[in-house]
Amino acid sequence: MLVRLVYASRATQELSATDLGHILRESREHNPHDGITGVLCFNAGVFLQVLEGGRMAVNARYKRILQDARHQDQILLSYDEIAERRFAGWSMGQVNLQRLNPALVLKYSASARLDPYAMSGKALTALLEELLASGVIECN
């Protein structure tokens, strides 16, 4: 059974581009073995991530994230059984924030600022699907 999990968390310390790159590299190395795909967005100290895969693998990964000292204020925004993956092309894609259109964020949020804590899981999933369609999600 496939599931899609969407969560947000705040970084416990400031992360550099190198730190974020390391997180993405680790995800891209380990996720294929576990059958996990997804996308990560990191903005202003906040992680927004979608994980897709088998229920046991996604649950185990989220449990590790909950225990990871780099994360605090974790919030589960959405957890759904799915028929197919939406982010299957990425072991871990990344949102290119330089290409993020504030008007698109405003379509799904009360403000043009991307704040996962102020948005529903459904709205965030819809926003990420539009970002995928518009080429804002990439895998370096």
From TrEMBL:
Protein name: BLUF domain-containing protein
UniProt-listed SMART domains: BLUF
Pfam families: BLUF
InterPro entries referenced in this protein's UniProt entry, alphabetically: Acylphosphatase-like_dom_sf, BLUF_domain
Domain of life: Bacteria
Domain BLUF: 2-93
Organism (species): Roseateles rivi
Signal peptide range in chain numbering: none
